[in-house]
Amino acid sequence: MNTSNTTEIHPYRLVLLGPPGSGKSSQAAQLAARFGLAHLSTGQILREEVARGTPVGLEAQRYMADGQLVPSELVNRIVGEALQRLERRGFLLDGYPRALDQAEALDKMLTEAALMLDAALYIELSEAMAQARLGARRVCLSCKTVYQASDLAAGAIRCPKCGGMLAQRSDDRPEVIHKRFEVYRERITPVLNYYRRRNQLVSVGGEGGIYAVQQRLLDALLSRR
Ligand code: AMP
Q: Is the pLDDT of residue 213 over 90?
């Protein structure tokens, strides 16, 4: 199996886990496109709520700005509502569950809908590599395209695609990355153990380029069929 752009409709129900900087959102977008899945990123949904200044956004912002997890009760509600809208379509959850109580809540929601999770995919990455990748990340404030500084002209402040202003995400500063990584590791360990016990955990290395990691995910996923 290769990483070409063919769409092969398969109603997988997946979660994709990985520390900050593991590239999970890019990988999630590609996997979702390949299998025709709905891509649900809790981080993205929360950032949109923050940008719109909704009550959920105002509450979430207090935690997100310094790398803390948003309370599970709030995130579970967002995911529950999104899953209901999908009905029986396949999905890929990106960045959720991030803590054991969220994994348990997800199971409950799926059981109630008589659905099963196919796999929990996990992208492994060291903190040193995460710091290097995230410190160099730039986001277009208009079209939301994400770049590595090395892909842009030196000192570029505008998006090559749409001309929007480029910025660093406020939670991509080194001390916040460190905090996010620590929080992630502490909270994700029981989640990984939970999925491992249920024989649903599929781990792949996150080092190397985006295509290498995508290939590892595809190989691991397809070998489970
Ligand atoms: P991400 O884009 O996945 O790195 O998420 C950015 C931020 O959103 C995180 O640092 C958390 O503050 C918050 N967030 C995203 N997903 C979750 C989740 N499942 N549980 C709690 N907080 C989350």
A: yes
Choosing from 24, 47, 133, 216, the catalytic residue is 24
Question: Mind listing the pLDDT tens digit for each residue in 136-164?
Answer: 989 999 998 989 888 899 989 999 999 99
Cβ neighbors of 147 (< 8 A, separation 6 or more) are 137, 138, 139, 140, 159, 166
The protein residue whose alpha carbon is closest to atom 11 in ligand 1 is 69
- Residues β-bridged to residue 138: 147
> Is 42's C-beta closer than 6 angstroms to any atom of ligand 1?
yes
Provide the H-helix boundaries in 55-113.
55-64, 72-86, 100-112
Distance 94 CA to ligand 1 centre (A): 10
Respond yes or no: is residue 89 known to be catalytic: no
Q: Confirm or reject: Cβ of 67 under 6 Å from ligand 1.
A: yes
Residue 225 designated active-site: no
- The pLDDT tens digits for 69-95 are 899 999 999 999 899 888 778 999 999
| Number of neighbouring beta carbons within 10 Å of residue 129 | 15
Cα of 26 from ligand 1 centre, angstroms: 15
Q: Whose CA is nearest to atom 19 of ligand 1?
A: 96
Percent of the chain with pLDDT over 90: 64
State the Cα–Cα distance between residues 100 and 137, nearest whole angstrom.
Answer: 29
Res 1 pLDDT > 50: no
User: Per the structure block, which two tokens stand in for 127?
Assistant: 């903190």
